[in-house]
Design a protein that fits this description.
The protein has 117 residues and is mainly α. The chain contains 6 helices and no strands.
């Protein structure tokens, strides 16, 4: 079962990175090009707290708006290993949830990685 999920995740990742505009890699947007701070991978690499995320949302940054490749801030938080409380907060925001396209796949992969599944 783990091999199926791992294979599906690998294929999903390859397909997603082949999409245009998928920031954080050559040809993707630079940090200055992000209009939504919560979509910037650099923001998540700093391990932001729930209060820091709330402050960004208060500034008008969307916690659920996807980019051209359908990645959203919650997926960015998960991929950049944000603190668990911050990820939980993001999942609870309007427009998000564990059944959202990338969120469910990433949560399954985290479970596999941590041996929970």
């Amino acid at each position: 079962m783990k091999q199926i999920f791992l294979g599906a995740f690998t294929l999903f990742t390859i397909i997603s990175y082949a999409q245009p505009g998928g920031g954080g890699r050559p040809g993707g947007p630079s940090a200055a090009q992000y209009t939504n701070t919560l979509m910037n991978p650099e923001f998540w690499k700093n391990q932001p707290t729930v209060d820091q995320v709330k402050a960004e949302i208060a500034k008008g940054n969307s916690p659920s708006q996807p980019d051209a490749a359908s990645w959203d801030p919650t997926a960015r938080a998960i991929l950049n290993e944000a603190p668990l409380e911050t990820i939980k907060f993001m999942v609870e925001q309007e427009g998000n949830g564990v059944m959202k396209k990338h969120t469910i796949v990433l949560l399954i992969c985290i479970g596999l990685h941590q041996g929970a599944i």
